[in-house]
Amino acid sequence: MRRFLTASAALLALVAAASTAMGADVVPAISAKIDKQQTIGSAALAYYGSEISRFKTETWHWQRVTGAKLTPAPVRTLSGLTASAVQRTATEWRLRLAEAHENALHPPHLKQFLCIHRYEGSWTDTGEPYYGGLQMDRGFQQSYGRWLYATKGTADHWSPIEQIWVAEKALKSRGYWPWPNTARYCGLL
């Protein structure tokens, strides 16, 4: 962008000198064209900036849900990048999001938790003291899904896959014991 502006300024100065020599008033037309290109460039930068921000936020969301390491944020600002570098950055974040979301869709014990869910409540069950499709109480949600609990509230506001990933985290330390009866029905205890 800086090169473009420098080149545009040099071209403008050259045209101004030539038009003064010829007595023509060409500068306003070229200046208007340059202003239009700069407006288009800033609109594209704003578009890609919002896309990158959205891709980054969603990528980090799924990485937090699955317990994966968060992708570090870029060090450089978008305004310091060339147009092709900005597009490349947007593409990279879009691909990271696709990968993080794909990983989130395949929890290790999906079939087992779907079996437990079959005997528990609806994914949107709000019945105090247990919430969601795996009937998690508030203490369970705060212990194993702290980030989701802080951002979305109780488990009835989480997607089914988010609820299953929280249960996956509990499974590592507690096994299937938080669901003793339904885990027995499913042959897990």
Describe what this molecule looks like in 3D.
By secondary structure, the protein is mainly alpha-helical. It folds into 2 domains: 2-104, no CATH class; 110-185, Lysozyme (Orthogonal Bundle), CATH 1.10.530.10. It has 8 helices and no strands. The protein has helices at residues 2-22, 27-66, 83-104, 110-119, 138-144, 146-152, 160-174, 180-185. Helix 1 (2-22) packs antiparallel against helix 2 (27-66), helix 2 (27-66) runs parallel beside helix 3 (83-104) and helix 5 crosses helix 6 (146-152). The longest helix is centred in the first third of the chain and has 40 residues, at 27-66. The protein is elongated and about 60 Å long. Mean pLDDT is 84; it is low at 1-15.
Strand count: 0
Could you give the order of the helices and strands?
HHHHHHHH
Our Rg estimate from Cα atoms comes to: 27 Å
Task: Tell me roughly what share of residues is in helical segments.
Answer: 55-70%
The largest sheet, given as strand count, sense and whether it forms a barrel, is:
none
User: How does the helix and strand content classify structurally?
Assistant: mainly alpha
N-end to C-end Cα span: 63 Å
